[in-house]
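hey
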């Protein structure tokens, strides 16, 4: 019930009476008082005025179940949420939850993770309480061969969400996509995505879509300081992580439904390519056993990068291939 009380407080512009809360949830005034005090102990600023009720005046930067769910505007994604103050990896946790029967759309989120990883086994970590570490459980009825494209669907959703949040704050900075799974700002990485699959007999049992977003970090280790950035650095001040999570889930749910209609990216190609930082630029394709350069021309409906080489267009499948700009990360 705490989640629902918090959601009502967020929705109300003014005060909401204790009596109304009692009637809404069929509980005593003492029960309402206890919930309000729990929220205060978690850092929420709640003003209580006799004969008027309760009013939410400030919200802490938390990624707890209650805080995330009070921000959601989805039907499925994130409605079942599991929070960890610290964990090894949210992808590991979501896979465990999947094996235990957790429903489609379950979200695992952590304040800090110790063994996060990105594409090709690269590490992903940051300080506790600054950034977003989360994984989403999906149970689609689809061809396993099409599952890898969901990394691009999440990338597009993340770009939409982060761009919108910056624009709402008056920031015109562009959030772009570096194919296939990074979001970038001024050519520096702010987000990475990793999709893992559990399948049997050519049937998907579940997918774990992990996403790490640098939200409020202001500094990075020296070895990546010129390649990494955060939303806070773009905006100039911190964002509440739960609001970022809710916005990403909203756009992912919407784009995921578009994807499922065809099990490809035909309905999202234009929006994805519009945000593709590599598009029209010279890139180096590092395919095991051979490397070549060309001009990136966008993606196709299979999520493959289209690279023009000597007048010929080649389709690059993510797999073990890495694509970089000639002079750096992008």
């Amino acid at each position: 019930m705490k989640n629902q009380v918090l959601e009502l407080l967020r929705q109300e512009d003014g005060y909401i009476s204790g009596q109304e809360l009692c009637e809404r949830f069929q509980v005593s005034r003492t029960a309402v008082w206890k919930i309000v005090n729990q929220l205060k102990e978690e850092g929420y600023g709640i003003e209580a005025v006799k004969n008027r009720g309760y009013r939410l005046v400030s919200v802490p930067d938390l990624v707890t179940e209650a805080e995330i769910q009070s921000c959601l505007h989805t039907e499925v994604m994130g409605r079942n949420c599991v929070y960890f103050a610290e964990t090894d990896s949210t992808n590991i946790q979501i896979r465990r939850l999947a094996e235990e029967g957790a429903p489609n759309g379950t979200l695992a989120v952590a304040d800090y993770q110790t063994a996060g990883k990105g594409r090709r086994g690269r590490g992903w970590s940051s300080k506790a309480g600054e950034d977003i570490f989360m994984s989403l459980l999906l149970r689609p009825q689809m061809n396993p061969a099409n599952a890898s494209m969901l990394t691009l669907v999440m990338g597009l959703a993340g770009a939409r969400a982060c761009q919108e949040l910056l624009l709402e704050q008056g920031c015109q900075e562009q959030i772009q996509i570096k194919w296939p799974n990074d979001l970038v700002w001024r050519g520096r990485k702010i987000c990475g995505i990793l999709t893992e699959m559990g399948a049997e007999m050519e049937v998907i049992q579940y997918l774990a879509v992990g996403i790490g977003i640098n939200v409020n970090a202001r500094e990075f280790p020296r070895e990546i300081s010129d390649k990494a950035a955060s939303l806070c650095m773009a905006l100039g001040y911190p964002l509440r992580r739960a609001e970022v999570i809710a916005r990403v889930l909203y756009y992912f749910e919407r784009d995921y439904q578009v994807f499922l209609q065809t099990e490809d990216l035909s309905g999202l190609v234009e929006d994805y390519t519009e945000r593709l930082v590599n598009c029209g630029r010279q890139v180096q394709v590092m395919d095991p056993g051979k490397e070549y350069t060309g001009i990136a021309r966008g993606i196709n409906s299979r999520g493959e990068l289209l690279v023009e080489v000597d007048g010929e267009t080649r389709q690059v499948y993510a797999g073990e291939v890495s694509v970089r700009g000639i002079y750096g990360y992008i």
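DSSP finds nine helices and 14 strands in the chain. The first strand starts at residue 45 and ends at 49.
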